[in-house]
Amino acid sequence: MDDHPPAIHCQQLDFVYPNGVQALSSVNLVIEPGEYIAFVGQNGSGKTSLVKHFNGLLKPTRGSVRIFGEDSSDKKVSYLSRKVGYVFQNPDDMLFCTSVQEEIAYGPRLLGMDHTEINQKVEHILLELGLDEHRETHPFALSLGDRQRLAVACALSLDPDVFVFDEPTTGQDYFGGKSIMNLIDQLHAKDKTIVIITHDMPLVAEHAHRVVVMSGGQIAMDGSPAQVFSQPEKLHQLSLRSPQVTQLAYEMGFTEQAILGVPEMVEWLSRSYLSADTTNPGSQP
To answer: Is 237 exposed, middle or buried (0-12, 13-18, 19+ CB in 10 A)?
Structure first.
C-alpha cells in the first residue's frame, strides 16, 4: 500500500440506484489530504451520490473508492466515519439524543472509547464550538444555527481527517452562514480535508481552493475557482453561473482571469481608472 495515499481515490466509479437510475458513470477523482474542494452542479448531476461514497453511505456498483488507501466496498459506515465525517444538509437528520452533551458523546461511546476520554473530548468540543451553555439542552430546542454547530460537533467527536458538508449554509441567515463557514475554514487550517456540496457560487469563490463541476453523473470541470469561473460559456452550457461580481467584470471586458470577489473588483477598477487617468491627464474623476 502507498505510504502516502490520497484521502479519496475514485477509479472508474459507477453507481446505479435500485430503481435503475444511473447516478454516476466512470468517475475518476483524486482528493489529496488537506484539500478544500467544492462540488457544484444542478440537482441530479451526481454530486451528492458521489460524495456519499466517501464514507460508505453508498457503495460502488462498479469501480472502486479508496479512503486513505483502503477499499470502501467491504467497510462499514461506522468504520469509515472515523476517517470521513459527514454533516448532512439538514442537521435534524443526525440528532436523536436527549441533550447536547449526550449527542456529542454518542459516537465515541459507540466506538468503545474510555469514559474519561469521552468526557474530556465532549468538554473540549462544547467549548470549541460555543455550545457549553447548552450542554443540558435538548437538541431540538436549539436554534437552527446551533443545531448545525451540534451536527458539526458530532462529526468532530470522531476526529476524522476528512469533513464533508452538504449545503452547510442552507437555512442560515447571513451571520449564521458566516459563522458556519468560519468554523469550516478553521478546520481546514488544522489540516483537515474539507469537501462541501453547494449551489452558492460566491461561497465557492471565497472559500474553496478547488471546484469540481458535476453533470450527468460525470465530472464536467475540475480546477481552481479562477479556472472554472473564467469559463462562463461552458458554465452556461451546464446551467451554472459564476458569482455576480465575476460576471460583471467579464461583461466589463476583464477576461484575463476570473474576478472572484469585491476586493479584487475594486482593485481592478482602481488600476483601470489610474491607467485611464495617466493616459488622459486632463480627465476628471
So the answer is: exposed
pTM score over 0.70: yes
Q: Is residue 62 within 8 Å of residue 118, measured between CB atoms?
A: no
Whole-angstrom Cα distance, residue 58 to residue 165? Answer: 16
Q: Are 46 and 216 in contact (CB under 8 A)?
A: yes
pLDDT at position 284 is 45
Sign of CA dihedral 180, 78, 75, 21: negative
What average pLDDT does this structure show over 8-23? 97
Chain length of the chain: 285
Neighbours of 272 (CB within 10 A): 13
Phi, psi of 222 (to 5 degrees): -155, 115
Which distant-in-sequence residues (6+ apart) come within 8 Å of 278 by Cβ?
none
**Mean pLDDT value across residues 171-188:** 86
Q: Which three cell numbers stand for residue 282?
A: 486632463
- Sheet with 70-71, strands from edge to edge, namely 22-31, 8-16, 62-67, 70-71
Q: What would the grid cell of residue 244 be?
A: 455576480
8-16 vs 84-87, strand pairing mode:
unpaired
**Euclidean distance between CA atoms 106 and 101, whole angstroms:** 9
Residue of 75, 66, 54 lying closest to 11 (CA atoms): 66
The values of phi and psi at residue 134, to 5°, are -105, 15
